[in-house]
Design goal:
single chain
Length: 123
């Protein structure tokens, strides 16, 4: 069993920054590519960013490229998402996910999911 626990969400003004964290436990962190997705009520889960093992390969949605940075600390089994220049349209519940099948932007590739953390950006 793998557990993913997100933290770091909150309310921020447009133009501000937040850093999300995702702590992974239960299985070896090195087995997984990791991703961040986001979702608003009534919408599909949207890809944000992903990172492979050990962290050299990354991918970003066009909407966040240049503003968000995904990273992982393999000594702490933790995934991060640094979010800068936040916009109201970034408001969503953010989920981290683990994939045993490699880096992907497709949510159905991911095996394990966290419970999500709310990010709200006010204008």
């Amino acid at each position: 069993q793998v557990q993913l626990v997100e933290s770091g969400g909150g309310l921020v003004q447009a133009g501000g920054s937040l850093r999300l964290s995702c702590a992974v436990s239960g299985r070896t962190f090195s087995k997984f590519a990791m991703g961040w997705f986001r979702q608003n009520p009534g919408n599909e889960r949207e890809f944000v960013a992903a990172i492979g093992w050990p962290g050299r390969s990354t991918a970003y949605a066009d909407s966040v490229k240049g503003r968000f940075t995904i990273s992982r600390d393999n000594t702490k089994n933790t995934l991060y998402l640094q979010m800068n220049s936040l916009k109201p349209e970034d408001t969503a519940v953010y989920y981290c996910a683990a994939s045993s099948k490699g880096l992907s932007s497709s949510y159905d590739v991911y095996d394990y999911w966290g419970q999500g953390t709310q990010v709200t950006v006010s204008s």
